[in-house]
Amino acid sequence: MTSRSMIFAAFVALALAGPASAECYADYKAKQDNPLRLHYGVAQVSDGNCSPGAAQGELKPRLASAGWTLLNVLSTFGPEGLGERQASAGEYYLRY
Question: Where is the signal peptide (predicted)?
Answer without folding.
Answer: 1-22
